Every structure is written in C-alpha cells, then in structure tokens.
Amino acid sequence: MPEQLTTLSQSSLQDYQDCPRRFELRHLQRLDYPAIETEPALENEKHKQEGEYFHRLVQQHLIGIPAEQVGKLANTENLQRWWANFLDFRSLQDFGSLYPETALSAPLGKFRLVAKYDLIAVGKDQVTIFDWKTYRKRPKNEFLHIRWQTRVYQALLVQAGAHLNHGKPFAPEQIEMIYWFADFPAEPARFIYKSNQYKRDWDALIKIADEIASASDFPKTDTVSKCSYCPYRSYCNRGIRAGDAADAELETEAEELFDINFEQIGEIAF
Ligand code: SF4
After folding, report:
1. What pLDDT is stored for residue 40 in this prediction?
2. Distance between the two ends of the chain, CA-based, in angstroms?
3. Using CA atoms, how far apart are residues 47 and 40, in angstroms rounded to an integer?
4. Is residue 98 pLDDT above 50, yes or no?
5. Which of 75, 147, 172, 178 supports an S-S bond with 198, CB 3.0-4.6 Å?
6. What is this structure's pTM?
7. Which pLDDT score, from 0 to 100, does residue 257 have?
8. What's the 27 CA to ligand 1 centre distance in angstroms?
C-alpha cells in the first residue's frame, strides 16, 4: 500500500469493493478521468453541475440565507423544480439543530476514516443524517442499504459524533439516515440504525481497511458490466465508448462515481 494514502472514505471504500483496479487508479494513482462516463456526455455533465449547484443552494439556505434569496439562484428548470421540492420537504421537517456540511473523522486501522455529511440534524432524542441526491432514477432501498455510504455515515456518527451530543456518543438506536431525492421528493429512503448493525459495520470497516493496508495488487473487477460506465475503461482495455446506463441501480452507480465529492474537501482540511 503506497504510503501517501492516509484516509479512507465511503467513496474510496466503494471503489475498492466494486473494483480494486479503480481504487488503485483513482485513489492511489489519482488519475484524472480520461473518458466521459455515460452517454450522452453533455447532458450528464450539465446534470452533474446542476447537482453540485443544488447542494450549494441547500447549504446556503441551511446556514441562514433566506429561501427567497437563495431561490433566485435556481436558474434552470431542474434547479427550480428541485428547489421547490426541497422547500416543500423542508416545511414538513422539524430538523432540530442543524449541522450542514459537517465533516467527521476517526482512526480506522492504519487510516483515518473521513466523511462529509450534507446535513446532520440533532433533535432532542434522535439524530438524522440527510443526504441530498439528484439522481434521475430512484434506486431501491436494498441497493442503498448495503452501500458503503450508508454504513460509513451511520457508523462514523456513532464513532465520532459525540461533540454534537454534549460530549456523549450517539447510541446507534438514536440515528436515522435519510436519502432525499430531489426528483422524487415524496420517496425518501430512510434507514434506522441498530447496535448490532453498528458492530457489524465497524468490524467490516476494520477488516476492509486492513485488507487495503496490506494489499499489493489491485485486480480488475470480474463484473464487466461495472466497466461500461467506468471512466478508466481506456486504461483497462474494457472498451472506449461509454455505455448507456439503462437500469436504476447501474445508473446510480454511474452517477455516484461523479457524485458531489465533498469528501475531497474534507481530506484536504484534516
Ligand atoms: S474499467 Fe473496469 S476494470 Fe477498469 S477500473 Fe473501471 S471497473 Fe475496474
């Protein structure tokens, strides 16, 4: 394992699990993306930028800028729809104390595990992790449940969130994670956490961190379908032209690869 790798995140862990070779290219060699992920390229690029911008709008609002003022910046059809959906959603929520774009980290084997949360909302007896998604398709809960993002965000909040709870670690049972989909505002995915899940997740995190620390080679995935939208195809002789992501889960994975990666900011800041 190259010595320069000091942090792990949900996205690097997901890459390692999906394809060790992708982990190597992206997180060890830090190669820029040489190919456009899915077709049609321009539309995807625009959607990604709008997704980033939407996160900024929500963040600005949550730190206190009035909705009317922020809403004026929603200057595309998608942004206007997402923003209107968000305001409807916001009006129904009692968030409690808000911690938007909060970074947490904790030691994990030879690494630090880092995560940047869109929003941690601390109520009287419970805490909710919100993650905003601008996916074009609503992935299944079963798919989201086993993603490293869900597992890392919840486990790390137990492990490193005590300062948000008067110095006392949150109990897993106090934690809920909600993925809110800007284009499917009435269909959030909610995951309640449990102590046995926390134990299982943290054990799994330690195991995968140890595996990465001692890894000497990073093989290509055997699941060739993962290559069809992977930006590193040209490095791997797995095709040059990107595939169309046809089903919801595949498309989600494709979008996730280029997701708003606030973690990168977090990694620099720590
Ligand atoms: S193209 Fe396939 S083998 Fe190569 S990094 Fe991407 S997923 Fe892995």
Report:
1. 63
2. 21
3. 11
4. yes
5. 172
6. 0.89
7. 64
8. 13
